[in-house]
């Protein structure tokens, strides 16, 4: 259809802003920026979030679709991070059960595995201990049970498998719902397809920004007292290109991670499986409703970070390892229905150039007064990451900061997610356009709706709205 890039609304939301000065402007519409905006909104701080592309269209829509503690981080002795992430995972299982589901993960162990059976047992116990024993399960399956529970798994040298709990999530939709919840409060706005540039601090201590609608080319100048940069892997480039008053040095070690989807009818896996190849990496194989997700990779990236795609080498790597551990599945390129990639915002360590071993803690920099730059971290801990910034901003307004305000369920739900796919109708399209902030019909298809009937119903929608 020729409607994909067509604008849904002819008027730019940038021009519809009721004011030009905000207490806080957040740049970056991924999960961290969304979490910051929501925390500020819940405390009554008037705020604006801007995102150059569509919300959650980059890194926050390209994860392994998990909320997890990071069992592999135990080897780095990142116990505090794992404890925090497990607490957040279990919190979101309660706050957003419609979009976050707990699953039993199987970790097969072979006689020649890099991590022997005793180490896996110890790691799973420690993982459960760090969750305050709030994970749903912890255990071990012998060889016979493993072969029964995991279809096509390699039998040669198999000792058994460890079992632990983590959660799968529709990452893009959770990000969008956090933003929708934030703008449901007064004095809070969010604009997608809006870039920020020419940032400077004036004599009054306010930050001045030029905002540009990337779809209509219209511009507007806005000011704020607090400026937050939450641009993930784009941070180093953004700071150097747009804040001349800051002598910014690189803080990130960007890493591309890629995934593939295969049809579940071709690979009828029942439980998520954690593969441990001989190179020391970890590959997750996670069944969803009608397909199976396989990832991720670890590849250096130097080109444009926007809208990255998997390389042929990455796809080959995933297929090779998948077929090594599941020789009976015989999965090839013809079984791949979709692939995607994203850039991890890994924080550079002085002595660490190994992206697979780089810690996932976040850092906050304040190169100028009331300028906050957050880098690193992981999707699961976005709420507590946000608090490192929002706490300071909120207290400066003489408002008592309450860290529990963000522990309430979200007020808005997306019409579609991985676990809920109603039959698509014109009425659903109208509700999505009203509530879920799409700017183009391409947004509807790629990031709002999961339906094979999209073309048909969109044609009916256009017919109704053009007669």
Keywords:
467 residues, 11 helices, alpha+beta, globular, 24% strand, 8-stranded mixed beta sheet, 6-stranded antiparallel beta sheet
Share of β-strand residues: 15-25%
Helix-strand string? EHEEHEHEHEHEEEEHEEEEEHEEEHHHH
Helix/sheet category: alpha+beta
The overall pLDDT, averaged over residues, is 93
Whole-number radius of gyration?
23 Å
Shape from CA axes? globular
Distance between the termini: 18 Å
| Major sheet details | 8 strands, mixed
Low-confidence stretches: none
- Count helical runs: 11
Care to count the β-strands?
18
**Share of helix, binned:** 25-40%
Write the layout of secondary structure elements.
Elements: E1 21-27, H1 31-42, E2 47-50, E3 66-67, H2 79-95, E4 100-110, H3 117-130, E5 138-142, H4 143-149, E6 158-169, H5 171-183, E7 188-191, E8 194-201, E9 207-213, E10 219-229, H6 235-242, E11 255-263, E12 273-275, E13 283-287, E14 291-295, E15 299-300, H7 312-325, E16 336-344, E17 362-365, E18 371-376, H8 382-396, H9 426-435, H10 441-448, H11 454-466
Helix pairs in contact: 1-5, 1-8
Describe this structure in words.
This protein has 467 residues and is of the alpha+beta class. Helices cover 28% and strands 24% of the residues. It contains eleven helices and 18 strands. The chain has helices at 31-42, 79-95, 117-130, 143-149, 171-183, 235-242, 312-325, 382-396, 426-435, 441-448, 454-466, and strands at residues 21-27, 47-50, 66-67, 100-110, 138-142, 158-169, 188-191, 194-201, 207-213, 219-229, 255-263, 273-275, 283-287, 291-295, 299-300, 336-344, 362-365, 371-376. Strands 1, 2, 7, 8, 9, 10, 17 and 18 form an eight-stranded mixed β-sheet that branches. Strands 11, 12, 13, 14, 15 and 16 form a six-stranded antiparallel β-sheet that branches. Strand 9 and strand 10 form a beta hairpin. It starts with 20 loop residues before the first strand and ends with a helix. The model has no long low-confidence stretch (mean pLDDT 93).
């Amino acid at each position: 259809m020729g409607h994909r890039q067509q604008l849904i609304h002819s008027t730019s939301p940038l021009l519809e802003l009721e004011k030009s000065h905000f207490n806080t402007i957040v740049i970056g519409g991924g999960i961290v920026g969304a979490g910051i905006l929501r925390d500020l909104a819940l405390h009554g701080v008037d705020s604006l979030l801007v995102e150059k592309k569509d919300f959650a269209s980059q890194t926050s829509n390209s994860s392994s679709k998990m909320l997890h503690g990071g069992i592999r981080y135990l080897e780095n002795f990142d116990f505090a991070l794992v404890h925090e992430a497990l607490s957040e995972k279990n919190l979101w299982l309660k706050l957003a059960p419609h979009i976050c589901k707990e699953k039993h993960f199987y970790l097969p162990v072979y006689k020649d595995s890099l991590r022997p059976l005793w180490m896996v047992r110890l790691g799973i116990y420690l993982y459960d201990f760090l969750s305050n024993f709030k994970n749903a399960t912890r255990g071990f399956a012998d060889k016979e049970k493993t072969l029964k529970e995991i279809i096509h798994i390699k039998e040669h040298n198999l000792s058994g498998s460890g079992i632990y709990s983590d959660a799968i999530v529709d990452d893009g939709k959770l990000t969008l719902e956090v933003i929708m919840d934030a703008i449901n409060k007064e004095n809070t706005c969010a604009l997608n397809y809006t870039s920020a540039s020419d940032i400077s601090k004036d004599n009054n201590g306010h930050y001045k920004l030029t905002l540009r609608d990337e779809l209509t080319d219209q511009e507007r100048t806005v000011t704020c007292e607090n400026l937050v940069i939450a641009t993930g892997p784009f941070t180093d480039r953004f700071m150097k290109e747009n804040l001349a008053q800051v002598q910014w040095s690189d803080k990130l070690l960007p890493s591309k991670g890629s995934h593939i989807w295969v049809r579940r009818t071709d690979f009828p896996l029942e439980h998520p499986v954690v593969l441990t190849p001989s190179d020391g990496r970890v590959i997750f194989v996670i069944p969803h409703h009608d397909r199976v997700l396989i990832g991720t990779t670890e590849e250096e990236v130097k080109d444009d970070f926007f809208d990255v795609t998997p390389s042929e080498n990455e796809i080959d790597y995933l297929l090779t390892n998948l077929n090594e551990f599941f020789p009976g599945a015989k999965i090839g390129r013809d079984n791949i229905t979709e692939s995607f990639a994203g850039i991890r915002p890994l924080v550079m360590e002085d002595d660490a150039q190994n992206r697979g071993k780089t810690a996932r803690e976040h850092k906050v920099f304040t190169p100028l007064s009331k300028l906050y730059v957050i880098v690193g971290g992981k999707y699961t801990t976005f709420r507590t990451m946000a608090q490192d910034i929002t706490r300071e901003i909120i207290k400066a307004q003489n408002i008592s900061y309450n860290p529990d305000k963000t522990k309430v369920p979200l007020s808005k739900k997306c019409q579609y997610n991985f676990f809920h796919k109603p039959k698509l109708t014109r009425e659903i399209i109208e509700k999505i356009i009203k509530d879920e902030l799409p700017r183009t019909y391409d947004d509807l298809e790629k990031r709002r709706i999961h339906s094979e009937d999209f073309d048909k119903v969109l044609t009916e929608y256009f017919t109704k709205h053009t007669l």
